[in-house]
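User: Show me a protein chain along with its predicted structure.
Assistant: Here is one chain, sequence first, then C-alpha cells.
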Amino acid sequence: MTSALFKDQTIHDRLHILGLSGIAVGLIFGKAILSISLLFSLLNLLILADFKNYWQRLRQNKFLLLVLVYFAYHFITLIWSDDISFGLHDIKVRSSLVLILFLFALKPLNDDGKRFVAYIFIASIVLSTLINFTNYVGIIGNKTYDDIRGMSLFGSHVRFALLTVLGIVMTFYTKFSFPKSWLLKLILIVWLVFYTYYSQVITGYLTLSVVAFSMGLYYLYRFNKVLAFSLLILSFLGSTALLYALFRPMEPTTKLSELPYATKEGHLYYHKPKSIQPETGEPTEIMISWQELEREWNKVSEIPFSDGRDLKGQFVQTTLIRYLASKGLNRDAEGISQLSAKDIQNIENGHASIYTKGILARWYGLRYQLLNNSDPNGHSLLERIEFWKAGTTIARSHPIFGVGIGDIQMKYNETYREMNSMLKVENWNRSHNMFLTTLITMGMIGLFLFLWFHLNFAIQSIKQQQLAGVLVVMILFTSYLIEDTLETQVGVSLAGFFLGFFNINPEKK
C-alpha cells in the first residue's frame, strides 16, 4: 500500500503544490517555514523519482542551464580564494536559488496549481501587512515602535518591501476565479501600494515606481507609440531632475552677522552655522539658547533635556533642535511655546523633522545625510557611498576573475584600512550593490553570467508576451542597485521563487 501511495501521481502533484505554497508563506513569515517547505518539496521529487522526465525538462530549460553555469562558476572561484570556508558558506546560501528553480522546472505547475500558489502568496502578504500595520499604529498590542523599521515584524524591512511590490504584481496578473474579482484586486493593490508608501523603504519606493512606469509604458505603447515615447522622455527628465534635487548642494543664505545675539528674555544665542536643515535650507545650530531650551523642555516632557534620550536612542536635545529647525522656529523658549502636543510626542519618539511619515520623511532624511556628511556612521546612504568607494577600489584591482567567493569580506576589510575610512569597524560591510558584489567576487566573467541569465529570462518573457516576468527581473535589478539581495537566504529564495514561478515552461511553447 505504501508503495502504491508513493507512485500515485495525483498525491505527488498535491504535495508539490503544498510544498511550493509553504515556500511562498515562508518567504513572508520566516526562515523556518521556508527551509522546511524547501526540504519537503525536494523530498517529494526524490520519492516520485521521475528522473527520465526530470532530465528531459532540464535539457529543455535554457534559463535553468544558464543559472547552473553561473552557480558552477562560484566553485571555480574557490581556486583563487584564500578563505574556502567563507566561500562555501556563501555558496550554501545561494544554493536556494538553484534548488527552488529546480522545483518549478523539473515538475512544472499546471494553471490550477499556479493559481493556488499565487492565492497563498497574495493572502500571506496581505495578512502580514495588516499585522505589521495594525501593530505599528497601536490598533493591536501596546508596544511603541521607535523606528519605522519596526513595522516589519517578520524579517528584514528591505526584503519585505520587495515582497510587497511583488505581491502587487502577483495580484495584478493572477486570474481570480469568481465574479467581480476586479474589485477585490483593486482593493488589494491599493492597500499594498499604501503600505509601501507608509513603510518609507527606499527599495520599496524605487521598485514600485519601476513597476508603475513599466506597466504604464507597456499599455500606453499598445495604444499610442508616440505617447509612450513621450512618457519615456518625460520620465527620464523627471528622474534626472529628482536626482539633481536630491544631491544638489545647498548653501544657507543666512549670514552670521545678521543673526540676533540674544533672545527676547535677554539670553545670549549660540550660533554655529555649519549643518544645514533641508526643510528650510537654513543652518540647524543657530538661534540656540541652551538655558531656555532646558528649562522649557523639562516643563513639557518627562525625558530630561541634559542627558535624556528619545525612543530611537538619540540625545533628545539634538532631536529637539533639529525638529525646531525643520519648523523654522527659534531654538529657545519662544520656539518651544509654539510646539503642539503632537510635536512634543514626535520629538520624544525620535523624529527630527516635521515630516514623520511617507516619502517626504524619507526624502528629507536623505537630504539631511547628504548635506551633513561629515560622519557616515548610522546614515544608510552615506554608509553605502563608503561601501561603493571601497568596492570600486577592489574591483579595479581584480577586474577579470575577481577576488574569489571566499575573500570578498577580507578584501573589504583591507581596503577600509588602506583608505582610512571613517566607518566604524562594525560598519565595514560589503557593497550593498549586487552588480558590484558580483564583479568584485567573480570579476567580469561572473558579472557577464549573472546578467546573461537574468536578461535571457526577460527576453523569453517578452517573446511570450508575459509582462509579469519582465517586471520580476526589473524589480530584482532595481533591488540589486542598492542591496546585496542574493546574500541572504530570504533574498535568494525570493529571487528563485519568482523567477521559477514566471519562467516559461518549455513544454508549453
